[in-house]
Design goal:
Blueprint: H1 2-5, E1 17-20, E2 23-26, E3 33-37, H2 53-68, E4 75-82, E5 85-92, H3 97-108, E6 116-119, E7 125-126, E8 141-145, H4 148-173, H5 175-218, H6 248-253, E9 270-271, E10 274-275, H7 284-297, H8 300-303, H9 308-320, H10 330-346, H11 349-352, H12 355-367, H13 377-382, H14 386-390, H15 396-409, H16 422-437, H17 444-455, H18 463-478, H19 486-510, H20 525-545, H21 551-588, H22 594-604, H23 606-626
Parallel strand pairs: 3-5, 4-8
Antiparallel strand pairs: 1-2, 4-5, 6-7, 6-8, 9-10
Helix pairs in contact: 7-9, 7-10, 10-12, 10-18, 12-16, 12-18, 15-16, 16-18, 17-18, 18-20, 20-21
Enzyme class: hydrolase
EC number: 3.1.4.-
Pathway: Purine metabolism; 3',5'-cyclic GMP degradation; GMP from 3',5'-cyclic GMP: step 1/1
Length: about 625
Amino acid sequence: MFCLLLGYFQKSLGNQTHNVGKVFISQQHSTPSVLFKRPTGCSRGFRTRPRTERILSRGKRLAGRREMGSASSAYRVIYLDVDGRIQKVVFSKFCSPYDIKELFCTAVGLRRNTVLSLLDSAGALVSIDPHMPHNTERSPYKVVPLSGGQLGDKEELFQNVLTQVAEQFSRAFKINELKTEVTNRLTMLEKRVELEGMKVVEIEKCRSDIKKLREEMASRNNSHFLDDNKMLTLRRDVPSYPKYHLSQETMEALRKPTFNVWQWEPNEVRRGGRPITAKESGNPALMLSCLEHMYHDLDLVRDFNMNPVTLKRWLLCIHDNYRMNPFHNFRHCFCVTQMMYSMICLCGLQETFNQVDILVLMTAAVCHDLDHPGYNNTYQINARTDLAVRYNDISPLENHHCAVAFQILSQPDCNILSTFDPESFQHIRQGIITLILATDMARHGEILDSFRHKVDSFDFTDEEHVTCLKTMLIKCCDVSNEVRPMEVAEPWVDCLLEEYFTQSDREKAEGLPVAPFMDREKVTKPTAQIGFIKFVLIPMFETVMKLFPQIEEVMVQPLRESRDRYEELKQIDDAMTEVKSYLCAEKEKPEFDYRKREMRAQELNPPLVVKVHSQYEDYGDKATLTD
């Protein structure tokens, strides 16, 4: 408060001349010194009197005239006692008390913002204002500056008054009740906004239905069919999956690569007043709620004005268009998206990327394996499927995932990108397509080499560099299961091998080439993982680590530990195989038994044995006869 009251600063202008607003003061060395102050707004400023005797005498005569005619003059004269020296102060009666105090401070040699009091010869306080009592040179006023303690007391008193005033205002206007009322009204408004949003979606849905009915009447052959005669599944009902309130612990865990996608905390969510079971935790509604939370937490819904109902409907439609494969299913989609979300948080990508790039990364992760049939590109090309023919053997699955993703977004009630203008939509579409096509492992070496050439001199302002980094990020997330803890990662290996074995069985039945790493008779879990971790995962993550060193501890180191663990398992498997082979060989080895060997010899050459015994018998007979 005192800073507000005394907010002017003093400027020195050489030769002991001071400038106070529009007031000019010159301290004279004669006795008594005379200070002049004109009121603010006067056409003529303050004049510093020359040091010549003639001008000084004239000033004294003028001052005397003003004193003599004080009843009608516009100036007042006050005498101050400054360390035993009489200081004469002249000011206009139109000056404000603040200006007069400022003038007194200057006369006494104090800072202009000093708080002071004025005492007469009897020690009584004198008010400092234009109408203060007149005095003479023989009865000067004494200027007393207030001490710091007095100022502190005044400030404390002022703070107490302010506190009391605030309390009185709070009681008078019932601030707390108003806060509660405003909160309740905001809640009601949010519900109304959500309902209005649902109405808008329903209107758009009705318009779309009418348009489609008209198109069907004109032509009955405009349905979109996917591979194996699978029709695109659309969501036209109002989304009604249960809303799960995620705990703070789960929201924090979602930001980390160690998130367990197989098991939820028992007290995480409740249904009907009871905790859900581990079996119920497989309900996709839980994963849908987490995905919805990610879009809100990254401010994508707010920044791009997404309709929350449309977001829910889009997520449900995404879920319905993932097939029930052992590996490439909706849970895999959730894992990849959650890993992308954790990398965005861990690497601080929102500080280096714009929000459109974040939207492209998240949406591409959600859509990257839509309608995956469970058989890879090699099978599609060798079997000459419709997808391979349609896309000319060029990444048929990845092209198909892109097509399904934008077929879903083409539906008004599922279009989370409806707020973008055509040019921005085209830019986002191209970004999503680029990232999904990059998940084809046939292009792994090409993409990794391109990033290696850029990483040492990476430029976040270069669009080509940023696009290359985004392709690396989605590739890392797509194959990131081994980054997670062993108990989370190992079940995914079983799921992947099951899908591989199903494909190899079908390839054998159809007479198609079979990859060794998919043949159930040749591959084991350790052999399947060691080469992939050593030659694909670790080099790729270590290259990204050059740009984001913070991923070493939480991503690269777990990969190294996983590699070591599988190498130990392979050594154990090799030792067990050797022991089994030795036991089988020993089991088949014959025992050293002469009787059995003789019987074996008889079986091998019976005529020779019979002949020997016949000669012996003949010789015996002859001997007998001879005797």
